[in-house]
Write a structure and sequence with these properties.
Structural class: alpha/beta
CATH class of the largest domain: Alpha Beta
Number of strands: 10
Number of domains: 2
Order of helices and strands: EEEHEEHEHHHEHEHEEHHH
Shape: globular
Radius of gyration: 19 Å
Oligomer: single chain
CATH superfamily of the largest domain: P-loop containing nucleotide triphosphate hydrolases
């Protein structure tokens, strides 16, 4: 399969602090790739570099075979991004924001409107005529999801997409992403909900202190355990040096 997300020695420094340190990724077409790590590990910084909103200090990014450095505008038409904190125009109504996206990406409105209606019905979105400034976090998250899913991008980057979603919507999103990947798109997702990553991701990369410390499917990650851990949660805690959680809880 063709590589859809590739980074070579991707690094980012903020002064003397190294947030991301020579991360190499190779994610294939149709793959759901889970990118996991503790808070502050470098997940969001990596996604921002992969999507062109943050310039790397070193390294290269290729999306769908194209160099991000030279083909940024073309690539941004091919990808969809769901940030961890949706930043939307609060003075717009939901349907006005979607019209804005349709115009920016030069989409055929006759083709897109049925998709918006279908996604709105699925996610229980009945507030597109209301101002975004009155939305809760979860409502904004659903609007962002609709704005990306309706375009059917070749690559989707999702940073903690289930935060703020109710259980039904989170399950629906998981199923939609699986269907999207089966149709040939690539899904690159960060999440703290390890159960989601364990059930839906084809491969998982674990970043800690800016470095990619482990990568593979669940069976391959299990081989890295020195303690015989088999669940993703236990593997994650062991590999990131946080396996003392149980001892801490018992001591309280």
């Amino acid at each position: 399969m063709e590589t859809y997300v590739k980074s070579v020695d991707l690094s980012k420094r903020f002064g003397d602090y190294i947030a991301v340190n020579k991360v190499n990724l190779d994610v294939k077409q149709g793959e759901i790739y889970g990118f996991l790590g503790p808070n502050g590990a470098g997940k969001t910084t990596t996604i921002r570099m992969l999507t062109g909103t943050l310039k790397p200090s070193e390294g290269e990014v290729h999306i769908c075979g194209l160099p991000l450095r030279d083909r940024e505008l073309e690539i941004k038409r091919m990808i969809g991004v769901i940030p961890d904190e949706p930043k939307l125009y609060e003075g717009l109504r939901g349907n006005e924001f979607l019209d804005f996206i349709i115009g920016i990406y030069q989409l055929n409105k006759d083709d897109i409107i049925p998709k918006i209606e279908e996604l709105s019905s699925a996610f229980g979105v009945d507030y597109l005529n209301d101002y975004i400034g009155d939305y809760s976090h979860g409502m904004k998250q659903k609007l962002m999801l609709i704005s990306v899913l309706m375009r059917e991008p070749k690559v989707m980057f999702l940073d903690e997409p289930t935060v703020g979603l109710d259980a039904r919507s989170a399950r629906l999103l998981k199923d939609l992403l699986t269907k999207t990947a089966q149709k040939g798109s690539t899904v690159f997702i960060t999440t703290h909900v390890l159960e989601i990553a364990e059930k839906m991701c084809d491969r998982i990369g674990i970043i800690n202190e800016g470095k990619l410390i482990a990568e593979g499917n669940l069976e391959e990650l299990r081989l890295l355990s020195k303690e015989g851990n088999t669940s993703l949660e236990d593997l994650f805690l062991e590999l990131t040096g946080n396996e003392d959680v149980v001892d801490i809880v018992e001591a309280l």
